[in-house]
TrEMBL record:
Native source organism of the sequence: Accipiter nisus
Principal location: membrane
Pathway assigned to this chain's UniProt record: Lipid metabolism; Steroid metabolism; cholesterol metabolism; Sphingolipid metabolism
Protein name per Swiss-Prot or TrEMBL: Glucosylceramidase
Reactions mediated catalytically: beta-D-glucosyl-(1<->1')-N-(15Z-tetracosenoyl)-sphing-4-enine + cholesterol = N-(15Z-tetracosenoyl)-sphing-4-enine + cholesteryl 3-beta-D-glucoside; 1-(beta-D-galactosyl)-N-dodecanoylsphing-4-enine + cholesterol = cholesteryl 3-beta-D-galactoside + N-dodecanoylsphing-4-enine; a beta-D-glucosyl-(1<->1')-N-acylsphing-4-enine + H2O = an N-acylsphing-4-enine + D-glucose; beta-D-xylosyl-(1<->1')-N-(9Z-octadecenoyl)-sphing-4-enine + cholesterol = cholesteryl 3-beta-D-xyloside + N-(9Z-octadecenoyl)-sphing-4-enine
PANTHER family in alphabetical order: GLUCOSYLCERAMIDASE, LYSOSOMAL ACID GLUCOSYLCERAMIDASE
Amino acid sequence: SSRPCLTKEKSALPSGRCSGLSGLPHAVPPCAGARPCSPKYFGHDAMVCVCNATYCDTLDPVVLPAPGTYVKYESSKAGKRLERSEGSFQSSLHAPELLLTLNISTLYQHVKGFGGSLSDAAALNILGLSQPAQDNLLRSYFSESGIEYNLIRLPMACSDFSVRPYSYDDIPHDYELKHFRLAEEDVKMKIPLLHRASAMSRRLLSLYASPWTSPAWMKSNGDIRGKGTLKGQAGDKYHKTWANYFIKFLDEYAKHNLTFWAMTAQNEPLAALLAPPQFPTIVFTAAQQRDFIIRDLGPALARSPHRTQLMILDDQRLHLLRWAKAVLGNATAARYVAGVGVHWYLDGLVPASCSLEATHKLFPDHFLLYTEACSGFLTTRFSVSLGCWERGNHYSHSILTVLNHFVAGWTDWNLALDLEGGPNWVKNYVDSPIIVDSSKNVFYKQPMFYHLGHFSKFIPEGSQRVGLHISHRYLSCQLEHVAILRPDRALVLVVLNRFGWDVPFGIRDPAVGFIRTVAPANSIQTYLWRQQ
């Protein structure tokens, strides 16, 4: 984690060559090809791309290059944003100091995908823009002219990123859930946005839901806010009602034509260890979550008409191995569970090898998915740091590390926040890849957005990580990387250089040949080619 980026604003003229020409939503772009970033600087090197109702930078749909050639997409602190170029493989290469060799006969985990979370705060910020600007924002994330997210996480009722604490059934002792109702936040905001995102997407969107808190009357502290457990114990009326609350949520969304790929059993069951005292949460130990799944939630999901998968943990990887052993070590619980959700916030405390990889080795049939990450948490001054390249680096470093340790995908936290990093009713402000300034009807696409795009756009669901051999003359490799085989048999190599100097290197695909190339200082690159 480097020093906070500067936040002094300095304006630059937009370089948008189609500026002001495309006010109509879904209009054919008035000039062919991808539209460039319209840059704005907030201090030296801190650049965002500005979008409004009439202009937003775009990408072309991904087209596989001709055999024997490759395409490269590059973003850099110096100002490139997913800039596309082409090149050809060579039949031989003067031995570079660093050579990355792909081995597609060594196959690792399948990829589920990449995405972000449609919190109440994200929905409010998106809907705070004019309709054409909203469309530009949604297209940036979900369409072929954007970075093509396929995962969306949705809080069940309120999270801290809401403007108020609420649940779907605030009538005390309603064990039949007769008064269960979706909130205005769902019906007026999130559901319409999900339909719009889905209509823009060429890919199938996978939704998954996470509860922060139950109704107050089910909690030991009698309050949606703050630290409390579910009343009683697994198998009793509180736990049965809470399990049925999950099913009711799925039922109500199904009435709006929305189905969920998965749910997590509880957002951050150990959040009370870290979070502000007002934070909406239910505390579960691993044993309590195991028993709730065995006696209540597992059977309720299995009996329901929904084919929704279940994830456990949804918390820091510090707890991962112990949690997985406690829950998945029980054969009955393991049958009800498909995967394990992980949050990134305490990753620095425990290496990936002895948490992610160790868990994968013990439970290879259960997927690992990163379900939440954001920058700017627990900072006193810079919740939002506009244009901060280092925060983009932090995202890519995390994604590369976890993909190389058997994780199936990565989900960012809020899709969009305001300039303060909210709204958030416990003032737990953080950063986001898109920051909305609704007073000016603009939004800013931050370096984090483009870093994520280097993965999400090029690595579709069903891809698989493949072997990558590194040979170099020095003891340490300065680049971070991952190699992926797509379902269409094309290959993707993502390379991150977090250092302040250029690193020359070579790429070798034994089936095609060699690429001689350079990873510029502070850059991320995605290479894409097809096999012969």
